[in-house]
Amino acid sequence: MRVKICGITQPKQSVAIANLGATALGFICVPSSPRYVTIEQIQGAVGQLPKNVDRIGVFANSSIAEISQTVKDSGLTGVQLHGDESPDFCSLLGENLGNIEIIKALRVRSFEDLNLAANYTKYIDTLLLDAYHPQQLGGTGHTLDWEMLQNFEPSCPWLLAGGLTPDNVVAAVNQVKPDGIDLSSGVEVKPGDKDLDKVALLFKKLRG
Ligand SMILES: O=C(O)c1ccccc1N[C@@H]1O[C@H](COP(=O)(O)O)[C@@H](O)[C@H]1O
């Protein structure tokens, strides 16, 4: 299963988390986030990573020019769009970025939100479902209603995010059966500072 650990800010932690088993790391390019990193910080963090670990930049309502420049300068292999980006925006971005993974995040509070997924799948590589929060775009630590996802079968791979922790991850995966998972605050000491013991426990639970 694909496991993305998001909100990495420190080069040392990025290598340690990859060694523990993460298949993708996320770098927050949203200036209002406490986990925000600059292009230089991303360069420092991805420099030592094994080639097979995906490096995903997380954006929210950034322009195509901004995203393209960041991808080019920092060696990202994918982008996660966590704002109100439209299907047309995803399609245009895909044309601009070429061989870069596009992950569209939907913040879900109702079936109406979930049904939006169908409008995106032909323009993106991967869908991500996160919890909706009225004041925060992401990294909220809130779970979404997993019951709603019982019959969720989009026509592209998808990741479950939102409030996952070493304690609830096995239940989430068994109940919802996503193609992968994405965690941020559930494996942190504080925003931007990952707790490596919690990350290790996460992989232990997943392997168990
Ligand atoms: O983590 C952030 O600060 C952030 C800011 C803006 C957009 C997305 C952000 N993070 C994403 O939020 C989800 C879930 O996080 P959590 O596990 O509930 O803390 C995850 O996909 C992050 O990529």
UniProtKB/TrEMBL annotation:
Origin, by domain of life? Answer: Bacteria
Q: Which CDD domains match?
A: PRAI
Q: Which SUPFAM superfamilies match?
A: Ribulose-phoshate binding barrel
Identify the residues that the record assigns to the N-(5'phosphoribosyl) anthranilate isomerase (PRAI) domain, covering every copy. Answer: 3-204
**Can the keyword Amino-acid biosynthesis be found in this entry's annotation?**
yes
| Keywords from the UniProt entry | Amino-acid biosynthesis, Aromatic amino acid biosynthesis, Isomerase, Tryptophan biosynthesis
- Which one GO biological process term can you cite for this protein? L-tryptophan biosynthetic process
Q: Which InterPro entries match?
A: Aldolase_TIM, PRAI_dom, RibuloseP-bd_barrel, TrpF_fam
Biological pathway: Amino-acid biosynthesis; L-tryptophan biosynthesis; L-tryptophan from chorismate: step 3/5
Keyword Amino-acid biosynthesis included in the entry's annotation = yes
What Enzyme Commission number(s) appear in the record?
A: 5.3.1.24
Where along the sequence do coiled-coil regions lie?
none
Q: Which reaction does it catalyse?
A: N-(5-phospho-beta-D-ribosyl)anthranilate = 1-(2-carboxyphenylamino)-1-deoxy-D-ribulose 5-phosphate
Q: Name one GO molecular function term.
A: phosphoribosylanthranilate isomerase activity
- Similarity comment text for this entry: Belongs to the TrpF family.
HAMAP family the UniProt entry points to: PRAI
Name assigned to this protein: N-(5'-phosphoribosyl)anthranilate isomerase
Source species: Chrysosporum bergii ANA360D
